[in-house]
Amino acid sequence: MNVNDSEILSGILETKGYQETTDYRSADLVLVNTCAIRQKAEDKAYGFLGDLKGLKKEKPDLIIGICGCIPQHEKEKILKKLPFVDLVMGPSGIEEFGNLLSEVETKKETITFFGDDCIPRGIHPSKRAKIPRAYINIMYGCNNYCSYCIVPYVRGREICRPVKDVIDEIKTLDKSIYKEVFLLGQNVNSWQGDRGEKFSDLLKIVHELQQIKWLSFMTSHPKDFTDDIIDAVANSPKINHYIHLPIQSGSSKILAAMNRKYDRDYYLRVVDKIYSKIPDVALTSDIIVGFPGETDQDFQDSLDIIKKAEFDSVNTLVYSIRPDT
Ligand code: SF4
């Protein structure tokens, strides 16, 4: 999601006449797009901003912006920590970024923007970084409140883009450049259209567009990985047989404590259905270790489910304490 946000921010900067540089020390503007999902990511962002503080002393006209989930969570408090920053905005500020930057350029004072909820974005110029892949965000925010996760507090409630906006954005893609359209959402398979369309309907609609050579999507929540989605993937030749389905723990006790809204047996049933309909699927997952209350047996359950689900790869992360969770 953050990569896609950065692509849009870069695209807007280009339309305002800025050019990318590989050496931030030579830049006129540095925008730090932050992630708050883990403490390590926050520490890294603050470390880099510390470097920028020194650079601002050497170059007082340097514009420094911080955006994304850290400022959304910290709000005005961040101005005390980072008084040298010129622009502070949460994720929903992207929609207003061009105007906010104009204000910074003319007023020479710190500008802030914190919307409480994500807003469905329009179609913006995007400097896509993963050619031949084009990320297309189809929804923002999250309603699930997993007990370890800060996302609902910083990205707001789930909001879905209408089918028309998704299609219109895909139609802007040059087919000779982009080979893969990658639909994105915190819970991409929970997407619902403004006319009651389900995610499987969207997959089928997008699949028919002539711009599409390959179609992928991420990240899916197991509780919403319904049979119609499995069928859509199995029966649509342009949809990649790649499914990322984070389980987070192999222990039903820990899954309940995580508020994941499914248990181990449910997850394995979904996996069985996927393998039966899409035998050549590449199935990947995420697992958190060290969640509060996790015993050796719970950990063994996670190891066991890795074998049972026959994942192609698993991102394993140590539990990270997040404020408000
Ligand atoms: S589904 Fe859970 S882990 Fe994923 S973004 Fe929402 S709250 Fe976080």
Automatic annotation (TrEMBL):
Under catalytic activity, the entry for this protein gives: N(6)-dimethylallyladenosine(37) in tRNA + (sulfur carrier)-SH + AH2 + 2 S-adenosyl-L-methionine = 2-methylsulfanyl-N(6)-dimethylallyladenosine(37) in tRNA + (sulfur carrier)-H + 5'-deoxyadenosine + L-methionine + A + S-adenosyl-L-homocysteine + 2 H(+)
Per UniProt, residues of the MTTase N-terminal domain are 1-106
Instruction: Read off the Pfam families from this record.
Output: Radical_SAM, UPF0004
Q: Does the entry feature the keyword Transmembrane, yes or no?
A: no
Look up the EC number in the record and give it. Answer: 2.8.4.3
* Residue ranges annotated for the Radical SAM core domain, each copy included: 128-325
Recorded GO terms, molecular function? Answer: 4 iron, 4 sulfur cluster binding; metal ion binding; tRNA-2-methylthio-N(6)-dimethylallyladenosine(37) synthase activity
Q: Which cofactor does it need?
A: [4Fe-4S] cluster
Which top EC class is named for this enzyme in its record? transferase
Can you list the GO cellular component terms from the UniProt entry? cytosol
The source's domain of life comes to Bacteria
Assigned keywords, A-Z: 4Fe-4S, Iron, Iron-sulfur, Metal-binding, S-adenosyl-L-methionine, Transferase
Main function: Catalyzes the methylthiolation of N6-(dimethylallyl)adenosine (i(6)A), leading to the formation of 2-methylthio-N6-(dimethylallyl)adenosine (ms(2)i(6)A) at position 37 in tRNAs that read codons beginning with uridine.
Q: What is this protein called?
A: tRNA-2-methylthio-N(6)-dimethylallyladenosine synthase
Its lineage reads: Bacteria, Bacillati, Saganbacteria
